[in-house]
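Quick one: Phosphate transport system permease protein PstA from Enterococcus italicus, structure tokens please.
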Amino acid sequence: MNAKRADKIATGILYSIAGVIVIILAALLLYILVRGLPHISWEFLTQPSKAYQVGGGIGIQLFNSFYLLIVTMIISFPISLGAGIYLSEYAKQNWLTDVIRTSIEILSSLPSVVVGLFGFLVFVLQFQYGFSIISGALALTFFNLPLLTRNVEESLRAIPATQREAGLALGLSRWETVLRVIVPEATPGILTGVILSSGRIFGEAAALIYTAGQSAPALDFSNWNPLSAASPLNIFRQAETLAVYIWKVNSEGTKPDGDAISAGASAVLILAVLAFNFGARAIGKRLYKKMTSAA
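--- reply ---
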């Protein structure tokens, strides 16, 4: 067998494997969407859920998912940005940076249920935050830090060294060069990573079962005082998210129309995650074209 023929066979095998994987994923997504889309309506997206009876929606769970996502990103993004800048621009190759990188790799490989149990022991019990949004957000911060930190570091490292040299040649300090030259240039990649990690957080369930709770108390959307117990902005209230609600409906089997509710909620979750992923690509490409055209 000559080299060209072997290359064609190997290429065909790789394309076949990739095609099978794509077909399986597409079939799974289509199955979820075909089952769930007929059950989605405005009432389904806005009404609160009902227990032990037919009907109800996912309004509170959907709000909780987005609110928990926002709180998590507010906590995790500044830490990840600082860590990424340090590792990319300031860290030297020594035992300390080796420990930091190893810790990041270990955190990124932890199962989400382990992160949830850690959050339960530390934030729910030790810090006595109880099952709450803040407990879930802090647990998801540990879940999200490795991905965001590596994304920021890689985005900064992708900037050519000539950009740094140009900033220093203009009389800027090292920090000013990073802040005014490097970070703006790396913004498209950083923003893409932030949106992709947001989709990952939005669909998380295992870590939130043990931290944010499995109930969705009624919310008073006319009361935006974060210190009020019924306020949607209260970070110390329980907050069942959409992914946790899907798990609960399927595991408890207490709703007569549980299959329909689960199918509709799953379709909404899939559409939201797809929107995060496609949105990240679109925004990243648009920012990159805008920055290259301005240059």
